[in-house]
Amino acid sequence: MTETAQTPGKAPPKIPSRIQQRNRSRILDAALEVFSRHGYRGATLDQIASEAGLSKPNILYYFGGKEDIHVTLLSRLMETWLDPLKDMNPNGDPITELLGYVNRKLDMALELPRESRLFANEILQGAPRMGPHLIADLKPLFDARTDVIARWMEQGRIAKSDPAHLIFAIWATTQHYADFAAQTEVLLPDQSRREGGAHDFLSQLFSKLLTP
């Protein structure tokens, strides 16, 4: 019978209890609300504690401080944010794949507006905490997908344009519905018209742009 080797003097990592997992999730959800509303500089641990319904010392039991919480949220968000771009199939039909990307990005903006504003606030501040992720994770994926789009254009399967700026345009038009939600909700108070209209309009817009 063999025994699993362990580093002498080093205890195995403890598995968080259900209460600890619940409190940690509660803190992160509260912090997401506070950061998306006030930005990193305007947010405080007291605000996060109040939003979470926990004491400030309780917050600091789970996290090292405001920056630790913010970095944790950004790290989790980056994985979610990259998924639609990863899902673009280089071997699929170009227009179908790109319109699918537009619709997935719009769905994320409508369903995860706080996450979108968290990301936007970080970028507006110069990405002080997210910079390494942009370089290590986003840049290689972005380059790979612009290469795919450029190849589709060279093959005549979609209209020629600048692939990088095409992706920027998709980001700008879809994330508008999260980052400027306070404005769009006033101008178009009918939710079904706002959200359904956004899908229809952007699909039509990019379909015309992409069709050779």
Structure in words:
With about 210 residues, the protein is an all-alpha fold. The protein has 2 domains: about 15-65, Homeodomain-like (Arc Repressor Mutant, subunit A, Orthogonal Bundle); about 70-210, Tetracycline Repressor, domain 2 (Orthogonal Bundle), CATH 1.10.357.10. Helices cover about 75% and strands about 0% of the residues. The chain has 10 helices and no strands. The N and C termini lie far apart (about 70 Å).
List the helices and strands and how they pair.
Layout: H1 18-42, H2 45-52, H3 56-62, H4 66-86, H5 94-111, H6 113-124, H7 131-154, H8 163-179, H9 181-187, H10 191-210
Could you give a quick summary of the protein structure above?
With 212 residues, the protein is mainly alpha-helical. It has 10 helices and no strands.
**CATH-assigned fold name of the largest domain:** Tetracycline Repressor, domain 2
What does the largest sheet look like? none
Principal-axes geometry comes out as globular
Residue share in helix: over 70%
Please give the radius of gyration in angstroms: 21 Å
Whole-number mean pLDDT? 91
The CATH superfamily of the largest domain turns out to be Tetracycline Repressor, domain 2
Oligomer: single chain
Could you name the CATH class of the largest domain? Mainly Alpha
**Helix and strand element order:** HHHHHHHHHH
Quick one: how many beta strands?
Answer: 0
